Amino acid sequence: MPADFGMQALALFQYQYKYNTLYRQYCDALHVDAGQVKDVTQIPFLPISFFKTHTVLTAPATKEASLLVFESSGTTGEATSRHFVPDEAVYEQSLLKGFEQYYGSCKDYSILALLPSYLERKNASLVYMAKTLMRESGHSANGFYIDEWQLLHDTIVKLEQEGTKTLLLGVTFALLDFAAAYPMQLAHTIVMETGGMKGRKKEMTRREVHDFLKERWQLPVVHSEYGMTELLSQAYSAGEGVFRATATMQVLVRDINDPFDICTSGTGALNIIDLANMHSCAFVATDDVGSIHSDGSFEVMGRLDNSALRGCSLMVV
Fold first, then answer.
1. Of 190, 198, 248, 242, nearest in space to 220 by CA
2. Cβ atoms within 10 Å, residue 89
3. pTM of this prediction?
4. pLDDT value of residue 312
5. Closest Cα partner for 231 from 113, 116, 128, 115?
6. Best CA proximity match to 168, nearest among 114, 99, 130
7. 3-class secondary-structure state, position 144
8. pLDDT 10s digits, 82-107
9. Contact 194, 312 (CB under 8 A)
10. With bands split at pLDDT 50, 70 and 90, how would you rate the model's confidence at 63?
11. d(CA 285, CA 32)
12. 149-162 and 172-181 helices cross at what angle (nearest 10)?
């Protein structure tokens, strides 16, 4: 975490309090004196549900219809989250620099995305993320897959034989199905699951999922990505479900019974500071429950009891 992250977060809070009408109204309803907020743990975090019920924009300069929008999945009749993005360059810069922070340049990888259900609907942030990584990579074998398992298998085998570093990014239920049908030995491929069971399979713990994938593909570890429609930054796990945030993101924890008791470590519901959310709201109170370690890394344990199941929800550890 950059030494000046807290200063940037506090400056962004003052900016969004001034220019984000919805967020200012929320802070005022809590009787927060913005001038007295001197630490990130004093910043009010907007409940993530607001992205389902309101337009969350800071000083919008253009009409909503002209903006890039990320939209969550939802069951029939369920409200979906909508995240308006006035400047996609901010998102792309955050994504690419964050990826490079933990994995090096995208140009070093062939990127394969197994994203059924996400490819079949509009405005999925995960699809936009994969497209951005593929564009930056520029590798001829890059591609999206829904159920073309034989072609995906053959592509991976060819890349393995060539010794090409490959990232297989996949929604969890699809990776499980693909691994069950096509066991193989992966020596040059990083497998990264993004969560996403959502009624497609019997719920499994992350450990069970990773153990199955490791056994089928003879992998030492399975990686994970933590992100959501309402955020523009990501966190990554290089194994065992322990995530590390990228440079534009910090995860804090709030007491489940007292949402204004916020700490930088411990167990409770997760609050996210996302500096890339400069045009929406950078301070989001999620419905995820987790544990933050003293070094800032964190684990996700599940969801708050009254939370609706999110399409990209993460499995219980």
1. 190
2. 8
3. 0.92
4. 37
5. 128
6. 114
7. strand
8. 999 999 999 999 999 999 999 999 99
9. yes
10. low
11. 16
12. 80
State the virtual CA torsion across 263, 102, 141, 143 in degrees, nearest 10.
Answer: 10
Comparing 200 with 152, the larger pLDDT belongs to 152
> How many other CB atoms are found less than 10 A from the CB of residue 271?
26
- Domains, the chain: 45-317 (3.40.50.12780)
Q: How far is CA 259 from the centre of its chain?
A: 22
Six token digits for residue 296:
């800032």
Model confidence pLDDT, tens digit, residues 143-162: 999 999 999 999 999 999 99
> Whole-angstrom Cα distance, residue 289 to residue 268?
5
Per residue in 42-52, pLDDT (tens digit) is 999 999 999 99
Contact of 14 with 34, CB cutoff 8 Å: yes
**Beta strand segments in 130-217, E:** 143-145, 166-170, 189-193
Counting Cβ atoms within 10 Å, is residue 73 exposed (0-12), middle (13-18) or buried (19+)? buried
Cβ(116)–Cβ(147) below 8 Å? yes
- Cα separation of 301 and 241, whole Å? 10
DSSP letter for each residue of 214-281? HHHHT-S--EEEE--TT-S--EEESSTT-EEE-TTEEEEEE-SS-TT-EESSEEEEEEEEETT-TTS-
Contact in structure between 170 and 114 (CB atoms under 8 Å): yes
In DSSP terms, which residues pair with 1 in a beta bridge? Answer: none
Position 310 pLDDT exceeds 60: no
Collapsed DSSP state (helix, strand, coil) of residue 71: strand
CA separation for the pair 39, 262 (Å, rounded): 11
Tokens for 3, please give them. 């030494």
Q: Residue 46: beta bridge partners? A: 284
168 pairs with which residues across the strands? 112, 191
Q: How far apart are CA 301 and CA 226, in angstroms?
A: 13
Q: What is the pLDDT of residues 236-257, one digit of tens each?
A: 999 989 999 999 999 999 999 9
